[in-house]
TrEMBL record:
SUPFAM superfamilies with a match to the protein in the record: Periplasmic binding protein-like II, vWA-like
This protein's record includes keyword ATP-binding: no
Recorded superkingdom: Bacteria
SMART domains: VWA
Protein name: VWA domain-containing protein
Gene3D superfamilies found in the cross-reference section: von Willebrand factor, type A domain
Keywords: Membrane, Transmembrane, Transmembrane helix
Transmembrane feature ranges: 7-27
Length: 563
């Protein structure tokens, strides 16, 4: 679809809000976006950083080695209670089925199509075996839903993700999956490209498809972002299709891996949500980004100046029955599928932006279901192969963190550290009224991992809260590391309740954050989330509001994407 130019994304805030609430991680923006009004010169920044650092009481802790747990991450144990995810439509009869539904169709507004259809179904007096039946819809992102199902922590009666890749992946993990229908409503994933860049690429390559897009990215001719393939349907689709474009016969072979590394080296970032992709595009750093067609057509500010190019498998919301269901439940699921396909319900879907681009067919053959999880692991291993990361974790150990908040902080870091890639470099800082360097930055080998575990395990809470002093120390550590290796990509993760009452202020360090372009991800523990957002928003990083029930899962997801 080819459309005219405009400014970006005011309407997408509403469309993406549900997605942001259900998918839990960050975005990494490390490209040079140019100086903003608050930036200062590198020389002035270095002088200011040295001065601020000199004002802080900093101690270095003796290293403490901890016991490393070499077992793989247990996703099921980290998942929060399923009650964290809203029931968007509840059942109205004693005989019913529960369906996990992807968020673009079980949210609100134009994203609430399936809810309207489900309510109509529940009011229609439909019977199975002489008894009235109904459905319960749970609004949950496709990737998160797959985690619940694969882990066995919570398995609904039925599952309707955005695309069939998730159904294939769940089945490959040994879950009994029966496809009831391959389509509830039509949709596709696509690349949204700035019109000027689109015309430039057409002139050079003659066509725009995933092959030419990945070639252009590898040649550093296109700045494009995509979404996390562990959580996002569009991101998973993009990854799998790209790998098959590099080598259709073996998407995990040497040729495919080499192709992935070439283009990934020039991808500015991977986002986790549509909302974060909106923020990145708003900054002006992107020529293109991935999006579903239904979101695209419902975003007024994208209807001028952008071109939508579909790719990969279709996003037609297949419906699956899960496990060994009684025949009555299976019949209810089938009755619901038949009801959804009725003409008036499909017309409602069209009104909400679905059922467009029905003539599009996948440009590559279906991927081997058994290789999908391996493709995700390949992405994790190779996504930063040419971009070494140095990250400092900054932990609040003030008195207000005492008790459950600190216990959950420790648990989330001890679980999350399993996601830290071995090629990364890691440091650790804790703060209360003063700041302690618990672990200087070093390559995350077995020795560093042991000392990271030891440092986290030994944390104790007491004193005031000098959050910005902790950030200053982390920035000084990262700048020293960059002096030794200018190629590193710096990150800071701040874990706090957000209540700063001592030390330097945000105003005093804002210009440093802007000049050094260090993304600062903040994770709040029953926190003043607005205070933390003010830190993260400077360089478009994510701020996670994690209460004690779901912080382990959220931080695991964040680190899986960024590290």
């Amino acid at each position: 679809m080819h459309v005219g130019k405009g400014k970006i994304f005011a309407g997408l805030i509403v469309i993406a809000a549900v997605v942001f609430g259900l998918v839990y991680y960050g975005i990494n923006l490390t490209s040079d976006l140019g100086k903003t009004a608050g930036q200062i010169s590198e020389e002035d920044a270095a002088e200011r950083l040295t001065k601020l650092y000199g004002d802080i009481r900093v101690t270095e802790a003796d290293p403490i080695k901890g016991q490393i747990d070499l077992d793989p991450v247990d996703v099921g144990s980290a998942l929060p209670s399923i009650d964290k995810f809203d029931i968007s439509v509840d059942h109205t009869t004693s005989s019913y089925v529960e369906i996990f539904s992807s968020t673009e169709k079980s949210g609100t507004g134009t994203d609430g199509w399936l809810n309207e259809v489900a309510e109509a179904f529940n009011n229609a007096g439909i019977e199975v075996d002489g008894s009235p039946v109904s459905v319960r819809i749970r609004n949950i992102a496709s990737g998160t839903a797959a985690d619940y199902i694969k882990s066995g922590k919570y398995v609904p009666d039925a599952y309707t993700p955005s695309n069939a890749l998730w159904g294939d992946m769940v089945a490959a993990e040994g879950v009994k999956v029966e496809e009831i229908t391959d389509r509830l409503v039509g949709n596709v994933a696509g690349i949204v490209t700035d019109e000027d860049k689109y015309n430039e690429l057409i002139e050079k390559y003659g066509a725009l498809n995933l092959k030419t897009v990945t070639d252009a990215i590898a040649a550093n001719e296109l700045a494009m972002g995509y979404t996390d393939p562990f959580a996002s349907s569009t991101g998973l689709n993009f990854l799998v299709t790209a790998l098959m474009t590099f080598d259709s016969a073996d998407m995990l072979g040497d040729q495919a891996v080499a192709g992935f590394e070439r283009f990934q080296a020039n991808v500015p970032f991977v986002a986790s949500t549509t909302l974060q992709m909106r923020d990145a595009a708003k900054s002006g750093m992107l020529d293109a980004f991935v999006l579903e067609y239904q979101t695209f057509v419902n975003t007024a500010d994208l209807q001028s100046g952008y071109v939508f190019t579909p790719f990969g498998v279709r996003h037609d919301s297949p419906l699956y029955a899960l496990g060994d269901l009684p025949q009555t439940k299976r019949d209810i699921i089938q009755a619901f599928a038949d009801f959804v396909r009725q003409e008036d319900n499909q017309a409602l879907g069209t009104k909400n932006g679905f059922n467009g681009m029905d003539d599009y067919k996948a440009e590559v053959a279906p991927a081997d279901p058994g290789l999908l999880s391996a493709a995700q692991k390949l992405w994790k291993e190779k996504k930063d192969v040419n971009k070494p990361i140095a990250a400092v974790f900054v932990a609040d150990v003030s008195g207000s963190m005492n008790g459950e908040p600190l216990n959950r902080l420790k648990e989330s870091l001890l679980t999350g550290q399993k996601y830290l890639g071995r090629d990364n470099s890691i440091g650790f800082v804790s703060y209360s009224s003063d700041v302690t360097i618990d672990l200087p930055i070093a390559k995350y080998d077995t020795n560093q991992q042991s000392m990271f575990v030891g440092a986290v395990s030994s944390l104790q809470a007491d004193g005031g809260t000098a959050t910005f002093d902790g950030i200053v120390v982390a920035m000084k550590m990262l700048q020293d590391a960059r002096a030794e290796d200018p190629s590193i990509r710096p990150l800071i993760f701040v874990l706090s309740d957000g209540e700063t009452n001592e030390g330097h202020s945000l105003d005093e360090i804002r210009s440093l954050i802007e000049t050094y372009q260090v993304p600062i991800y903040t994770i709040g523990y029953n926190a003043n989330i607005q205070a933390l957002q003010s830190i993260s928003s400077i360089n478009e990083a994510a701020s996670i509001n994690a209460d004690t029930d779901d912080v382990v899962y959220k931080i695991g997801n964040l680190l899986n994407v960024q590290m």
